[in-house]
Write a structure and sequence with these properties.
The protein is of the alpha+beta class. It has helices spanning 2-16, 21-29, 53-59, 62-82, 104-129, 167-178, 188-194, and strands at residues 39-51, 86-90, 94-100, 135-154, 157-165, 183-186, 198-202, 218-223. It is globular and about 45 Å long. The protein is 43% helix and 30% strand.
Length: 228
């Protein structure tokens, strides 16, 4: 099992080396630009955590396991890029993506749309893959965070990361941890920004775990049906 889990981590690390488009744009303009430094920006942060690694490692041989998990990660990466988000790094058994826009409501909506798309992708892949599927749980929070690029230099070369830090990011991670399998939890600020675009319901306090007391989390059920 240790060998199979090691193979899984190597696949995950492959996607951690993905250079966000935001970093590419900044470096292309000027590698020494002040814009590379962290500064406060308004963002929506999406955390995606995956479950089912252990079950998969017990059910599949290493080759099949590698191919299957790579399909999931590749599809999720496509979804984040199509939604205009930037993946910074993997965290645990998942990853974090940052959404920005001059209009705070726009990036909150794109983050929620992307998360619902990832959920649909995961469910489709599970139907195609048969038993022992991967499941996801996600959290989104919106607001000001310290956002910027960091450059690491080592014996094997240079690597850039792009991340957001602060209370907004911490709450997004905790919302993802509190969400059940195949659920999307969002913070109150995200709910305010997306207005009535989605069907949401308040999450029960007992299920919230690490979410700070006094912070109401909401589960996004899907787009709100319009009766035109």
């Amino acid at each position: 099992m240790d060998v199979k889990l090691g193979d899984l981590r190597r696949i995950r690390d492959h996607f951690a080396r993905f250079v966000p488009e935001a970093v590419k744009r900044l470096v292309a303009l000027d590698p020494a630009a002040p814009a590379l430094a962290k500064r406060e920006r308004d963002v929506s942060v999406l955390f995606v955590d995956l479950s089912g690694y252990t079950t998969l490692s017990e059910a599949l041989d290493p080759g099949a396991l590698n191919a299957l998990v790579e399909r999931y990660f590749s599809s999720f990466l496509d979804g984040i890029q199509e939604g205009g988000g930037d993946i910074n790094e993997t965290a645990g058994d998942g990853f974090m993506a940052i959404f920005e826009d001059r209009d705070p409501r726009a990036h909150a909506g794109r983050a929620v749309d992307t998360a619902l798309d990832l959920l649909a992708r995961a469910q489709r892949l599970n139907r195609e893959s048969g038993p022992a599927p991967l499941t996801i749980h996600m959290g989104i929070n919106s607001g000001p965070a310290l956002v910027g690029a960091t450059r690491f230099e080592g014996a094997r070369g240079i690597r850039w990361t792009f991340t957001a830090s602060g209370v907004v990011t911490i709450l997004a991670a905790r919302l993802a941890a509190a969400a059940g399998l195949n659920q999307l939890f969002v913070g109150p600020e995200t709910v305010v920004r997306v207005g009535n675009r989605y069907e949401v319901r308040a999450a029960e306090t007992a299920t919230l775990g690490q979410v700070p007391e006094g912070v109401q989390a909401y589960q996004v059920l899907g787009p709100r049906l319009r009766l035109d």
